[in-house]
UniProtKB/TrEMBL annotation, chain A:
Residues 473-497 are annotated as: Disordered. The chain crosses the membrane at residues 285-307, 366-392, 412-436. Keywords: Membrane, Transmembrane, Transmembrane helix. Belongs to the GerABKA family. This is Spore germination protein. It is found in: Cell membrane; Membrane. It holds the Pfam family GerA. It is a multi-pass membrane protein. Residues 488-497 have a biased composition (Basic and acidic residues).
UniProtKB/TrEMBL annotation, chain B:
This is Germination protein. InterPro entries: GerAC_N, Spore_GerAC-like, Spore_GerAC-like_C, Spore_GerAC_C_sf. Keywords: Germination, Lipoprotein, Membrane, Palmitate, Signal. Its main location: membrane. It comes from Thalassobacillus devorans. Residues 25-189 form the Spore germination protein N-terminal domain. The keyword Lipoprotein applies. The keyword Repressor does not apply. Residues 199-357 form the Spore germination GerAC-like C-terminal domain. It is a lipid-anchor. It is found in: Membrane. Belongs to the GerABKC lipoprotein family. PROSITE patterns: PROKAR_LIPOPROTEIN (PS51257).
Amino acid sequence: MWKWKKDKGDEFPAQNETIRDIMKQLKQSKDFVTYPIDGETKCVLVYFKTMVEPKIINDRILPALKQNALHSLEEMKDIISVEGLTVTDDINDFRQRVMQGHVIVQMKENDKKFLTIPAVIAEKREVSIPEVEFSVVGPKEAFVESLDTNINLVRKRLTLPQLMVKELSIGKMTKTRVAILFVDGIANKENVNTVMQRLGDIEYDQINDSSYITQMIADNSNSPFPQLLDTERPDRVTGSLVEGKIAILVDGSPHALTCPTTVVEFFSASDDYFLPWHLASAFRVIRLFAVIFSVLSTPLYVAILTYHHEMIPQDLLATIVSSRADIPFPPILEVIVLELTIELLREAGARLPTKVGQTIGIVGGIVIGTAAVEAGLTSNVLLIIVALGALASFTTPVYQIGNTIRLVRFPFLIGAQLWGLVGVSMVMAFFIAHLIRLQSIGRPFFAPIYPLRFRDLKDAFIRLPFNKQSKRPIQTRPVDSNRFNQKRANEKRDVDE
Amino acid sequence: MKINIALPLLLIVSILLTGCLPHESVEEVALVNLAGVDYVDEEYKKGTVAIHHYGRTKEEIPSEQYLSYTAKSLKEIASGLESKSPRPIRMGKLSFSLYGEELARNDLSDSIDMLARDPHIGRDVYLGIVAGDTQELMEKKYSENETTARYLIGLMEQNEKNNFPTTNLHRFLFAYYGKGMDGFLPYLKSEGDEVKIAGVALFKEALMVDVIPFTDVFTFKMLIENFNQGVQAIEFKDKNVVMENIGSRVKYKLEGNNNKPKFIININITGIVSEISDVGSLEAKTLTPEFEKEFSKYFERNGKKMLAKFQEGKIDPLGLGKILKNRRGNFDKKVWEQQYPTVPIELNIKVNIVESGISA
């Protein structure tokens, strides 16, 4: 479906005419091995020694070739006990397979016909606990860099014949394997086609991580808001698949993408489903409040202190005025200095090794903050506001949206300085308009709020108990919207029945 | 194509123009909490403002500075005050505005107009009429722990919960601009080292015409609004009986038409007799019906006297005209003003004493 779109002339490296040319090229690499066998069976093994598992060559291939007298590739294919052997004369296959870590067997060097034996080194990281989306309760598995392991993590949670895995390779040079997972009969066909088409249309040389895909297939790639939700938790992916969403897994990336998503989903944590619904709802509301606070607290400080003095309560006036009395800067500069300090700490903390990073975070926060107040560069009222704002921005369960919130604060600050509260409202109006226009795989991004999907509100700002979640979200337009039979779910049966 | 040029242009212009707007941070301005206007003579007025100087630590009580200036109009006073202040004066935090009695008896409309027009000034500002000189009242120090402004606000807030009717700029403006209504404001008096609410100053348009003494304020509040607190004492057989109000409900009824209106004011008061000197608790219980009768008699007599006074003075702080206007339509202010002194007003008061003896 997508192959025809690719112009053959664009292939890299350029087409080589014969196996001899390819061999010549490959032989320039030090780790390329041509190993002729000169016993009863006469043949040549060709492989990259850094890509193949020596065990397979030593235990399976060499004994089979040396103990038997074989005169054709077909005979070898029958004798060698490794799965996935093929005999072919396709030059493209030759190049691709040898690069992927297959052992190629030829009757004599530069022969047209050859046998390929998969002997890829299974070098991968163990499945470990999630670090970005850690949760105290619930499963502790996180995705790793191997696509097959990741698909396995999802499949073992969702043992359904309807769970479809489509695969394509993207990236002219990296040829990265990208898998699309969805549940047939639930996921909307249109969504699946959109994702497949957008992935197929990607024209780029390398895909190093799933975040490349997020940016490339986003409906609006200029938006600061991520339009695909990324997660490292297989249980979250399973949850999304069951809701009729589509998951995208990229080989080499420990983060899966799910779509279509909504802005509210970025503030829902997997904890929300492990805790009783009222507690979970309360925490989710706190998280949403924290985000609003984080974005608006410093702009409001600037706007009120610069333009709207009458809004400061009488009892707070003394506190603010006396703490500001020694500060040589207007509120906006004071805020920018402190916000930048926090951003610096954050960047430094993210770049430094874990152990050092933590120290920098704590020491930097306390020392720099206190010193700035004592030096009279910022007021302690603002220090509290900025610190709380930074803290609140860390409450987002999805890392990507945390970055957005970090950035979004600055336009608000500029608006607040230029036009006061009017400016804050203007920037707010701009962002809300932007969010309303935004789409995730063609589905509204601001969904349960606008367009108002009353039914989807059951799992948006609050999470209602599971027996109220009998319908899948309208936002994904699932083929089958019933999760379970609510009537049966609400029946209370006695033990004797 | 046109919009492609117009939009960025608009944005650039609006951003550049913000440079023309002078703005100061809070600590760079003098915020006025308390302002007072006095009558000097026919032409001149004297304006006084209290501005706060905050210390380096928030624990310090801000020192108050009083600036006053005499000029013909409030605008001139404002600019005159600037000439005495180290920082630009901002009226945004104004919370209490005082007027001298003499000014109020002459004309308050200019001052009220100024407050009504300033968008920075809130609508929950207290207004007050001062017996005597406002500057004198403002400059006295009443409390060690509070500024005078805070002290006066506390005085009003505390009293509004009890016997004193709710007043503020919003309510006064509503009555002032509304048809068939007259406003009223607290009447403050400075006595030695203290300041007290001496009563209610009644207005005819922007002219102060009368004062209800503080002893009658309970009756006045009862006629105006529903409330759940407040205390009233009466003489009962040479003894002092105090009733604590726990729920007073007032209902206005209108009978007749525009030409011949008749007002019926029904008031239900539920109260507790909390303090009776020299009466045993058992005795007090049997006396309860008598207390009820005595209290309703007192309120009726007092209320009727008050209403008669209003009608005589052609002032309408209860807003009877507004009730007629709202309920009957076709309101003619001139006709109403002629009718008002003779319009029949019936006052029915029912006192229900539910408990006696124990003071809460």
